[in-house]
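Lecture 7 notes: from sequence to structure.

We start with a single chain of 256 residues. Read the sequence below before looking at the structure.
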Amino acid sequence: MMARGMRMDGLTLRVIRHPLVFHRPAQTSRDVLTSKPTYFLLAHHPDGRFGCGECSLIPGLSPESEEVALKALQDVVKSAVLDPDSIPAQLPAVRFAVEMALMDLVSGGKQRLVDNAFSQGETSILINGLIWMNEPQQMVQQATDLIQRGFKTLKMKIGIGSFSEELEWLKVIRDLAPLAAGFTLRVDANGAFSRKDADWTPLQKLERLADLGIHSIEQPLMASDPIGLAELCRESPVPVALDESLIGVLGADQDR
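Now the structure, written as tokens:
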């Protein structure tokens, strides 16, 4: 943590609710998100500096509920103190907001937490273009738009429908973004391979994905099946990345 051991008191704090409403529904195999609860923690120092921290929550995934997060933020406001170490690790979104507001104040209230080439706009960070679940033609259009915008790595959400049909969509997208042309294609199942499938086992699905040159798959099985996930990781021809399985894991020695 950048602000470990740091604190600042004598501040005027307040919380602003600012829900983020998606331009279009964000569908995964788990659910559909149309908005995202977000709060800003605003900090004013007596010398005129201003800091801002963001508390961003994902319903159903964030360890803290919106109600718990808001109560914790209100307690911070009442204390007039920014002290990240005082926020329990079980409230990561709240802790992040406090740390961010503090670091903003420390850096002069410029909304630039770290002074480097990226924050100064001199360099960029490569990210993947995300293809949300939708009708097949819509997903192909998303891929086309991302490629035209210059993305070389695409990540596609899978797991809502028939795997055989999804394979066909993936083949079309792979043709649009061929491995030979330097494109990387990843998939995110959000645990969907845990569902019973009369036609495919999870390993068979991964073998077919490997045939398409898929770079990696994120969370093929539910986090509630750590043993099955460990076994699948050992046999998978496609590298497996974890997501939901890491929620609530607070240390390297914690057994999951």
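Residues 129-246 form a domain with the TIM Barrel fold (CATH 3.20.20.120). Keep this in mind for problem set 3.
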